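Hi support team,

I've been running sequence recovery on a batch of backbones for a student project. Most finish fine, but this one hangs at about 90% for roughly twenty minutes before it completes. I'm not sure whether the input is malformed or the queue is just slow. I've pasted the C-alpha cells below so you can try to reproduce it. Let me know if you need the job ID as well.

Thanks,
M.K.
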C-alpha cells in the first residue's frame, strides 16, 4: 500500500483541481506563476492562498515560505495542496512541468504529482499523464486528533 492508496477521493479531487488551475496559471505567462495552495475544510469547501515572491526572493525561497505558512494550518483543515511551476526530466528529456504537493492531514506523507507540458504558440500542451513523482515529508508535521478525517 502507498499513500496514494490511502488517500481519500475528495483529496484526489482537490489535487486534480489544483493541477487544472496550475496549468491555467502556467498559460498566462512564460514566467513561473505565483505558487498557490488550496486548503480543504470539513464542509468540502476550499480556500485559495497565493504566495507571491518577496522582494529579492527566488522561487525556492518562496516555496520554503509557503511550506512554513502551510505547516501552521488552521484547525479543521482536512487536506492541503501546494502548486508551483518548474522543470522535470522524464526518460532523459527535460520539460516544463507544474507540481502539486498534496497532504491529507491524517496521512503521514505528502504526494508530489507532476504534469509535464510544452509551450507552443502561446498555448500549453500537457505531455502524457500526470506523474506521481514522490512521497515526501508532510506539509503539516503534526496531526491533531480533530484533523483525523479525510
Amino acid at each position: 500500500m502507498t499513500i496514494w492508496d490511502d488517500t481519500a477521493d475528495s483529496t484526489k479531487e482537490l489535487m486534480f483541481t489544483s493541477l487544472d488551475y496550475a496549468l491555467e496559471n502556467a498559460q498566462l505567462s512564460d514566467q513561473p506563476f505565483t505558487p498557490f495552495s488550496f486548503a480543504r475544510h470539513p464542509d468540502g469547501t476550499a480556500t485559495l492562498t497565493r504566495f507571491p515572491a518577496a522582494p529579492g526572493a527566488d522561487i525556492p525561497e518562496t516555496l520554503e515560505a509557503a511550506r512554513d505558512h502551510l505547516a501552521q494550518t488552521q484547525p479543521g483543515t482536512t487536506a492541503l495542496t501546494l502548486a508551483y511551476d518548474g522543470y522535470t526530466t522524464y526518460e532523459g528529456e527535460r520539460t516544463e512541468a507544474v507540481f502539486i504537493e498534496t497532504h491529507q492531514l491524517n496521512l503521514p506523507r505528502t504526494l508530489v504529482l507532476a504534469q509535464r507540458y510544452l509551450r507552443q504558440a502561446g498555448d500549453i500542451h500537457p505531455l502524457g499523464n500526470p506523474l506521481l513523482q514522490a512521497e515526501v515529508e508532510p506539509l503539516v508535521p503534526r496531526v491533531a486528533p480533530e484533523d483525523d478525517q479525510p
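--
Follow-up from support: It reproduced on our side and the slowdown came from queue contention, not your input. The CA atoms of residues 117 and 126 lie 4 Å apart. No action needed from you.
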